[in-house]
Amino acid sequence: MLFQPINRNYHDFSIVRDKDLCINCKVCIRQCSYEAHFWDESRQKVMHDNAKCVGCHRCEAFCPTSALLIQKKRSDFRDNALWRPEFIKYIYKQADSGGVLLTGMGSPVNIPVYWDKLLLDASQVTNPSIDPLREPMELKTFLGAKPVKLEFSKTKDGSPKLKTRLTPNIELNYPLMFSAMSFGSINFNLHIAMARAATELGICYNTGEGGLHKTLYQYGKNTIVQVASGRFGVHRDYLNAGAGIEIKVGQGAKPGIGGHLPGEKINAMVSETRMVPLGSDAISPAPHHDIYSIEDLHQLIFALKEASEYRVPVSVKIAAVHNVAAIASGIVRAGADIVAIDGMRGGTGAAPGMIRDNVGIPIELALAQVDQRLRDEGIRNRASIVAAGGIRCSADVVKAIALGADACYFATAALLAVGCTLCAKCYTGKCPWGIATNDAKLAKRQNPDVAAKKLVNLVHAWGHEIEEMLGGMGLNSIESLRGNRDKLRAVGLSDTEMDILGVKHAGR
Amino acid sequence: MKAPDRYYDFQKDISGCGVFGVIHKNRGLIPGDIPIRAMTCMHDRGNGLGGGFAAYGIYPDLADKYAFHLMCDTQAALESAEHVLKHYFTVHESHPIPTRKVLAIKNPPLVWRYFLSIKKDRPQEGRELGEQDYVVSAVMHINHKIPGAFVFSSGKNMGAFKGVGFPEDIADFFRLEEYSAYIWTGHNRFPTNTPGWWGGAHPFTLLDWSIVHNGEISSYGINRRYLCEHDYLCTLMTDTEVVAYELDLLIRKHGLSKEMACKVFAPPFWDEIARMPKQEKEAYTALRMVYGSAMLNGPFAILVADSTGLFGLNDRIKLRPLIVAEKDDMVFMSSEESSIREVQPELDRVWMPKAGEPVIVHLEA
Q1: What is the dihedral of CA B291, B293, B299, B302, to 10 degrees?
Q2: Which of B2, B7, B8, B237 is the mutation pick for testing A, counting most A CBs within 10 A?
Q3: pLDDT band at residue B215 using 50, 70 and 90 as cut-offs
Q4: What is residue A234's three-state secondary structure?
Q5: Is B17 marked active-site?
Q6: Which of A91, A351, A481, B269 lies in disulfide reach of A356, CB 3.0 to 4.6 Å?
Q7: Tens digit of pLDDT for each residue in B242-274?
Q8: For residue range B144-162, what is the model confidence (pLDDT) as tens digits?
């Protein structure tokens, strides 16, 4: 019999405490929700248990004397190209638990990040670059179906009068939206922060599948309400509260499976909003049990349009999977006004690691194929495309739009903006940064005013950068970038990859 | 249509240019000497790799016939093209376009013109088409399928004359001083990456439309994909092709006015739209939402002529020059005022049109 279980040895992080700097103030003890730091009565000093550390860096950030350093544990397994350390640890854990390995946030595995293999163009000599500080630069974006053509009549004074009736669209000041994160998976402080930030920015945030708290209805013009397989918090007022409705079919981090919000995260407010009993698990089934085929989706889309009296566009969100282009085409033909595609690097509050790291395809390839397919079929105008899943920076947004996206959803970046360190333990409900937790003591670590400000700052910053890149390419409006793959060149990609992306190699 | 394989793999035309246009509103005839001298004045705006002219009202005796101008690399290509023409049309007259030998013009193609009307018993594949689509399909057939043959003009009572060379040399070659027209446009080209090809020179034409263009359309990548969705294949590697097809789509097929088509090319800024009265706000918001992919972004000054008039348009921040002048019933549009003064020193009015604001001149009916 081992002295202690294997897992206690092969943890991920080590806490390094500088004895000279530590003043035993116990801040680390109070900050760590995983109880990695503790007061040792016998020694009369602060001690720690490395095995409990999740690498969130909260203690390090709050230590008043900078006495703490969180490091990857330096003990290495013998090099083995096949049995890499993560696989060894998975087996130790599963041998202990017999369960599915849960994880949070987007996949860290080393699949190609095509954003990094795509480079943007800039103007030199033959056309002038445009300086966004001196010239207008337009990012305004409309999401929803558009007719193929317009008809105008002329009034007496010669001004045009629109005769064609448009279907509803969502107007965005930036081609960006906060992606779906349910109330419950993250707490109310962040929901109100997203709602306020979206309102200030003139963009939208997505409620996720957890309903909309009644105090947030006032931000409806900047809200997309989501309808997922669990139908949590879905009722007539909810469907009519937002600027758009989204049917969530799939999520990039866990295509093909449902969701599970543990009962520990269901407090009174979450329970009321989700319309589920206090403390009970909220389980979203893998499929919608009223969608077993595309014609069923067609019915649900129109049921929601009826319920909202055709005042808002309906989006359908799917995970990027192998036949994503054909599926997206079917979704558009079924009446969706927006298709949101979530790539395999998209985040999650909780997903089985095996699914997250092995199912789905990267957003870049999916997006390129969906955009081309809809154009080939002559139905690109009938729906907007929103790309999601691993958008890290403004250049990723620019590249996504050049590949064909109308706008991008981002969520992980929004959480990073309010302090997340990607420790990937969202499913524990103990988020030390006060994000993925409904524990009142932890949740109050997020001040909605501060969080809203951070989110606004991030989008402003990205907006400035997008304008600079657009201007550099000699464009002054985002619609001239949309689907303009001539602005992209690939580096180090195969002919097949370039053909899928529809871009030429750099130098050509 | 479905995009052809490797449609993304194209070489884009990059060029600077000089443009000139003149119209007589009452169809008074303007001698060829005028546009030739104006273009000669702007010699330095080109590099000898492309020059050309379009003229309206030059075939009054055959005004109801489609005037096809063909350029062919070989006699065999010309014969193949003629075979196609006879398949689609009744040929009323055909002869070589009069030219003279010019020292500066090396290896010109065979240039030939045909006056055509649509066959009474059309071939099977064209029976369902409207008249103009029928003509366009015949043009596309020759341009895409007959190697070495190219239709560079296909309107009625108008014609394009173009090739590799400075515009004054091209004019000399085609003996343009012998023609008179009520609309003339001229073009001097400064390409930086396309080989000299006679068909690639401006004006670019489709039916009665002719376009001369100074600019680089930075939105080309999306414009050509948008056109492909609407069954136009851009194959000539020139921005101007995009302008021509978009005009055809917007005006002929979608029924937009010239004014609204110009607003698609160079739409008002969102902050201008925000200040408009409600009805206009609604119209322009919809225009930008629906036709965003057709917007021409990047520096341009274009002159577009058809059988009803001439218009000039700049991009919406005026990154290329365009000046307009009036003298009696004539309106001049040019890259440089000097070229207008060269042919008409006394002018009633001279002005710089604002960015994105079209100047549209209609011929009297």
Answers
A1: -50
A2: B8
A3: confident
A4: coil
A5: yes
A6: A351
A7: 998 999 999 999 999 999 999 999 999 999 999
A8: 899 999 999 999 999 999 9
> Which segments of chain A have a pLDDT < 70?
1-3
Cβ–Cβ below 8 Å for B219 and A484: yes
Note the pLDDT of residue B194: 62
Res B219 pLDDT > 90: yes
Listing DSSP states for B64-116 in one string gives TSEEEEEEESSHHHHHHHHHHHHHHEEEEEEEEPP----TT--SPPEEEEEEE
Please count the other Cβ atoms lying within 10 Å of the Cβ belonging to residue A263: 15
**Alpha-carbon gap, residue A284 to A296, rounded angstroms:** 18
Torsional sign, CA A454, A458, A459, A464 = positive
Q: B15-46+214-362 maps to which CATH number? A: 3.60.20.10
Facing residue for A480 by CB, picked from B1, B219, B282: B219
Please check the confidence at residue B16 and state whether its pLDDT lies above 80.
no
Measure CB to CB from residue A127 to each of B216, B222, B289 and give the nearest one. Answer: B216
Asked if A435 and A89 touch (Cβ cutoff 8 Å), the reply is no
Q: Indicate which CATH number applies to the domain containing A395.
A: 3.20.20.70
Buried b (16+ CB within 10 A) or exposed e, B158-177: bbbbbbbbbbbbbbbbbebe
**A87, burial (CB in 10 Å: exposed 0-12, middle 13-18, buried 19+):** exposed
Cβ pair B271:A136 closer than 8 A: yes
Residue B234: pLDDT band (50, 70, 90) is: confident
What average pLDDT does the segment B342-352 reach?
97
Q: How far is CA A103 from CA A84, A353, A428, B124, B177, in A?
A: 18, 5, 9, 65, 80
Residue A203 and residue A175: Cα distance in Å, rounded?
A: 8
B-facing residues of A in 245-274 (CB < 8 A) are none
Find the CATH number of the domain harbouring A49: 3.30.70.20
Of A146, A153, A155, A162, which to mutate for an interface test with B (greatest number of B Cβ within 10 Å)?
A162
- Paired with B115 in beta bridges are B67, B93
Chains A & B: contacts with CB separation below 8 Å: 136
Element (H, E) at A92: helix A85-97
Residues A237-250: tens digit of each pLDDT = 999 999 999 999 99
The verdict on A49 and A149 lying in the same domain is no
Same-domain check for residues A213 and A84: no
Backbone φ, ψ for residue A446 (5° rounding): -100, 115
pLDDT of res. B48: 87
State which residues form the domain around A450: 141-153+164-505
Kindly give, in sequence order, each residue whose CB lies less than 8 Å from that of residue B88, ignoring residues fewer than 6 positions away.
B116, B118, B119, B122, B123, B126, B134, B138, B141
Residue B12's φ and ψ, nearest 5 degrees, are -95, 145
ipTM > 0.90? Answer: yes
Q: How far apart are CA B123 and CA B113, in angstroms?
A: 22
* Residue pair B35/B154 in contact by the 8 Å Cβ criterion: no
The single residue listed with the structure tokens 């309903």 is: A211
CA A192 to chain B, closest CA, distance in angstroms equals 29
Residue A353 tokens, joined: 């690691």
In a domain, A129, yes or no: no
Q: Which two tokens stand for residue A34?
A: 């995983």
* A93 and A192 assigned to the same domain: no
